[in-house]
C-alpha cells in the first residue's frame, strides 16, 4: 500500500514549476489537508529558486520521488510528460494528482490506472475548477429539476490563440494541446458532471494556414509550428440521451456565441465558465423566459487550484472516493480521442469507458468537511 494520512496533512511534492504552479502555490497554504514539502523541476536551479520562495526544498525529480516526506506528487509538467511522470510517482509508492490531460492517449493512460489500482494508490486529475460554486450550483439546479428533464447543452469556447499572452506557448500546438485537449477537459468534465458519461460522438475539425508567432516574453517573434487541429466541433450523445454540442477554437477573433448553456423541458441555464471556480449561474424558465441569477447552492466557496488535491487528501484519510478521479479524466480523454477520430474518419465513434458522476459538493463545504 502507498502513503496514507490520518491526523497529519498529506505532504505534497510538486514536479514542474512553470506558469501554472503559481496558481497552486497561491492556494495550498489555505488548505489544511495539504502541506507543501518540496518542489522539483528538470531545471534544478529553477526548482531551488522556487523552493526558496515557498520556504521548502528545491530538488531534482529523482530526489523528490525518493523523499520520505512526500506522500503525494502534484504533477504540473507538460502534457507529453504526464504518463511518464505519473508512472514514476506510482512506482515510488506515492499518490499522484496531475494537470489535465491525464495522458496523451488512452493507450498511455490505461497502464497508469492499472498500476495505481495494483499498488493501492490514488490518481487524481484536473480540472478541479468544476468543484467550485459555479459548475456545482449549475449541477444542483439540474439535479433538482429546475430546468425539467435535460434535453441538450451547447458549448462555444474560442480565442485567437494562446501565443498572444503565453511566453512559451509552443506546447499548446503539439499533441496534447490544441483547443480540444487544452480547453476541452473543462467543458467535457462539466458535461459528465451534469449528464453522466458520453456514449458516442461525432465531430469535424480543421486548422488554418495562419502563421503563428509568440507575442510576448523573451521569445517574442519566434514562429510556432502547428501540429494539431485548431478548430474543433463535436456532437456528444450522453448515455442518458442528452445531446451536447461542443465547439472549441484557437481561430476566433471575436464572438457573440453563448459560452455554455443547458436546455431542458422546463427551462434553460446559462452555465459559467468552467475554467473559473465561482461565477454565477442564471436560469430562464418556461414560465417567464427572463434570465435571473440563481443563489449559490453547491460547491467549494472561494476555491482555487489545489482544491481537487485537498478533496483527494480528505478522501484518502476517510477511505472515500475523491471527486477529480483518474477514471473521470480517462473517460474525458477517451471522449477527446473519439472526437479526433470522428473528425478524421467522418464517422460516429462509440465511447467504451463509463464513469460514475462524482458526488455533488454540498453548499458551504470545505475539502475536509463533506
Automatic annotation (TrEMBL):
Coiled coil region boundaries: none
Gene3D superfamilies: Dihydrodipicolinate Reductase, domain 2, NAD(P)-binding Rossmann-like Domain
Residue ranges of domain GFO/IDH/MocA-like oxidoreductase in the record: 135-269
The entry's keywords: NAD, Oxidoreductase
Pfam families in alphabetical order: GFO_IDH_MocA, GFO_IDH_MocA_C3
GO MF annotations, alphabetized: nucleotide binding; oxidoreductase activity
Residue ranges occupied by any Gfo/Idh/MocA-like oxidoreductase N-terminal domain in the UniProt entry: 10-124
Keyword Phosphoprotein assigned: no
PANTHER family: BCDNA.GH03377
Protein name: Dehydrogenase
Amino acid at each position: 500500500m502507498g502513503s496514507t494520512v490520518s491526523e497529519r496533512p498529506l505532504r505534497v511534492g510538486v514536479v514542474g514549476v512553470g506558469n501554472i504552479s503559481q496558481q497552486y502555490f497561491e492556494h495550498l497554504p489555505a488548505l489544511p489537508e495539504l502541506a507543501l514539502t518540496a518542489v522539483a523541476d528538470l531545471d534544478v536551479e529553477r526548482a531551488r529558486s522556487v523552493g526558496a520562495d515557498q520556504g521548502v526544498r528545491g530538488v531534482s525529480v529523482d530526489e523528490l520521488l525518493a523523499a520520505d516526506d512526500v506522500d503525494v506528487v502534484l504533477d504540473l509538467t507538460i502534457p507529453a510528460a504526464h504518463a511518464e511522470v505519473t508512472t514514476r510517482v506510482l512506482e515510488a509508492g506515492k499518490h499522484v494528482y496531475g494537470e489535465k490531460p491525464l495522458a496523451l492517449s488512452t493507450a498511455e493512460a490505461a497502464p497508469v490506472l492499472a498500476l495505481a489500482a495494483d499498488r493501492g494508490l490514488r490518481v487524481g486529475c484536473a480540472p478541479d475548477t468544476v468543484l467550485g460554486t459555479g459548475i456545482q450550483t449549475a449541477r444542483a439546479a439540474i439535479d433538482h429539476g429546475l430546468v425539467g428533464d435535460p434535453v441538450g447543452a451547447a458549448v462555444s469556447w474560442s480565442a485567437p490563440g494562446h501565443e498572444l499572452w503565453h511566453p512559451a506557448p509552443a506546447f499548446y500546438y503539439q499533441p496534447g494541446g490544441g483547443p480540444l485537449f487544452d480547453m476541452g477537459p473543462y467543458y467535457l468534465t462539466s458535461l459528465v458532471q451534469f449528464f453522466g458519461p458520453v456514449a458516442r460522438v461525432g465531430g469535424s475539425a480543421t486548422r488554418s494556414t495562419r502563421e503563428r508567432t509568440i507575442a510576448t516574453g523573451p521569445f517574442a517573434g519566434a514562429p510556432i509550428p502547428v501540429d494539431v487541429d485548431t478548430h474543433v466541433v463535436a456532437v456528444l450523445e450522453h448515455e442518458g440521451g442528452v445531446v451536447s454540442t461542443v465547439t472549441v477554437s484557437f481561430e476566433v477573433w471575436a464572438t457573440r456565441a453563448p459560452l455554455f448553456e443547458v436546455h431542458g423541458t422546463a427551462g434553460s441555464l446559462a452555465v459559467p465558465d468552467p475554467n473559473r471556480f465561482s461565477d454565477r449561474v442564471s436560469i430562464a424558465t418556461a414560465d417567464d423566459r427572463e434570465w435571473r441569477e440563481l443563489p449559490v447552492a453547491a460547491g467549494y466557496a472561494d476555491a482555487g487550484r489545489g482544491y481537487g488535491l485537498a478533496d483527494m487528501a480528505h478522501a484518502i484519510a476517510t477511505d472515500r472516493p475523491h471527486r477529480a478521479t483518474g477514471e473521470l479524466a480517462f473517460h474525458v480523454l477517451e471522449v477527446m480521442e473519439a472526437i479526433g477520430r470522428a473528425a478524421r474518419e467522418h464517422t460516429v465513434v462509440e465511447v467504451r469507458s463509463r464513469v460514475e458522476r462524482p458526488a455533488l459538493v454540498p453548499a458551504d463545504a470545505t475539502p475536509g468537511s463533506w
